[in-house]
Design a protein that fits this description.
- This protein has no helices and 11 strands.
- It is mainly beta.
- Strands 2, 4, 5, 6, 9, 10 and 11 form a 7-stranded mixed beta sheet that branches.
- A hairpin with a 5-residue loop joins strand 5 and strand 6.
- The protein is globular, with a radius of gyration of 13 Å.
- 31% of the residues are buried.
C-alpha cells in the first residue's frame, strides 16, 4: 500500500496561484505514475496531470495545459502541482493518485476555491 497526503489547497482570487503537495509513504518504490485529479461539485472526477515516477515525463489535460505544472521530488517522495492563472472553473477538490502495478491509491483530497 501507498499512503498519500495532499496539502496546499485554499482560497485564492482569479489569476492567483497555489502550489499543491502530495506526500507519499509506504511502498513508494512500487509507484509507476503519480496523477492529480479534481472533482467539482456535481461533476465527475477528472484527470488534471500526471508524472512518471522514474523518468519524469508529464502529461496535462487541455484545460490546464500552460497554466499548471506537475513536478516531483523523489528523495522526499512528494509530487507537486503548481497552479497559476487560476480560474473559477478550477474550483474543485484535488486528489493525488499513485498508480502501482495492479493497483492504485488515493489521497483524501484538498479543496481549492477560486473566487471572482
Amino acid at each position: 500500500q501507498v499512503q498519500l497526503v495532499e496539502s496546499g489547497g485554499g482560497l485564492v482570487q482569479v489569476g492567483g496561484s497555489l502550489r499543491l503537495s502530495c506526500a507519499a509513504s509506504g511502498r513508494t518504490s512500487t509507484i509507476v505514475v503519480m496523477n492529480w485529479f479534481r472533482q467539482a461539485p456535481g461533476k465527475e472526477r477528472e484527470f488534471v496531470a500526471l508524472i512518471s515516477w522514474s523518468g519524469g515525463s508529464t502529461r496535462y489535460s487541455d484545460s490546464v495545459k500552460g497554466r499548471f505544472t506537475i513536478s516531483r521530488d523523489n528523495a522526499k517522495n512528494t509530487v507537486f502541482l503548481q497552479m497559476n492563472s487560476l480560474k473559477p472553473e478550477d474550483t474543485a477538490v484535488y486528489f493525488c493518485n499513485a498508480v502501482r502495478v495492479g493497483s492504485s491509491n488515493w489521497g483524501q483530497g484538498t479543496q481549492v476555491t477560486v473566487s471572482s
